[in-house]
Structures are given as structure tokens and as C-alpha cells.
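Hey,
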Amino acid sequence: MGKSFAVIGDPIDHSLSPNIHSAAFRELDLDSSYIAYRIPKGELEIGIDGLKKIKIHGFNITIPHKIEMMRYLDKIDESCSLIGAVNTVSNIDGVLKGYNTDMDGFLEPFKKKELNIIGTKILLVGAGGAARAIVAGFAKEKAKSITIANRSLEKAINLSKFAKTIGLDANAIEIKDVKDTAKDYNIIVNATSVGLKNESSVIELKGINEKTIVYDIIYMPMNTDFIKKAKEEKAIIIYGYEMLLGQAVRAFEIWHGIEAPYNAMKKALLGGF
């Protein structure tokens, strides 16, 4: 009997997850399928019932359900409770267990490239959806400090308070106050949606160098203005697709309990661009 998996959300037709997971199944010759399943806002409960009826083995959750989905879980893993949102669920005999793979997915490229986080100074631009998981990741990996720059200072302050509660020294500023300070940081992360439509980067990267790590969590387009500016300064680049891949790998391992075929998944993902 084959296993079935899905990604739920709305909109969902642009999701690259079906491609990535289907490639993994093919590579390992697994009798599994993965579909994109649109569940509009307000219809989550009915949607979940439907998934349980077809005995789905696992599913990913995207916008707008990542927080509301917490209500329908029977168990949650610690990543989930820390971040307060769920993006991966396993269904074992009707028991739904939630995970959040954002943190592991975000950290995966650092591990793959053997890049150090311990003792580093970080600039995080943005305090929205993924930012909390990113802060949790940097705290776990023992970064020294984080400056959170956001349009709304209030959101940045809230996130910096969270950082402090989990042992990461933090402060909050408005994006416009970053000015020419990018060069003072070891790692700079864009966690805003600026760049999705090819807009200019919200911060200047002048003065950073070949030791600076610059990470954009946007994966389409691959080369955002932020990434292009970082390349001009010869920085170490981490692309958004690497985080997406890290998340998919983690979900695969949760569901199947075996190592994910990274290269096959990477090829499928990059083929989708």
C-alpha cells in the first residue's frame, strides 16, 4: 500500500514541494505520492478531516494555516512549541504530530558549507513569519548577538525579547537606521519579502567582505538585488532555495525515517526555476 503526502495552503499552485518530494520518491524507489491540496482560509478543520479520511501519512502546511493548524494537533515537537507555528505534520494511526522545520531548514546550509555561527554578530532584516525560527536557530547555534531591523520597530522589539528569553543577546532598530553598519556584522539575513518582485534591497551592503555571510530566504528570484549586492562585495552567499531544500529534507526524514536523497531533491528544485 503506497503512502500519500500533501502540502496544504492557499494559494498553493506555485508550490515546489510536490516536485521535490516526488523526485526523492523516484530516486529511492518509494511507493509514495505527494500532491498540492488547496484549503482556503476558514476551511482548515474540514480539510484536515478530509486528509484523515484518506489516511494521509504526512503533510506540509503553508500560508495561511501555519498557526491555526496548531489547534488540530495531538502532539507537538519542541521546535513547534518554541516557534509557535507548524509546517510539517505526521499522521501515525490518526495521531497528528506537528513539527516546524523552519529552524533546521534555515541552519542546514551553514552545516552543509561548514560555516561557523558560534560567537558571530548577526543582522536580521525583517521580523515576520520565518524570523522567529531564524532567531531560535541562531540561539541554538550560540551566536553572540543579533540586531533585528524591521520597518515596524514594535515587531522587532518583540522578537528581540524572545531572543533574550532563549539566551541570545539582541537589540531592535528600524530598517532605515541600518545605514552603513552592515560591515559590522558577520552574518546578514534578509527575512523580509522585499526582492520577490525584484525590488531594490532595503539595506546597503557596502564595506562587507569575503568573510561576511549573506543569506536571503527568498528563493524566487534566486538572485535578488540583495544577493547581487552581496556578490559585488565578494561575500559568502546562501540562497533561499537552500533553506527550502533544508526544510524538505527535514520533512522527508520525519516521514520516512531514512536519509533524504539531497542531490536528487536539489536537482528537482532547481529544475523548477
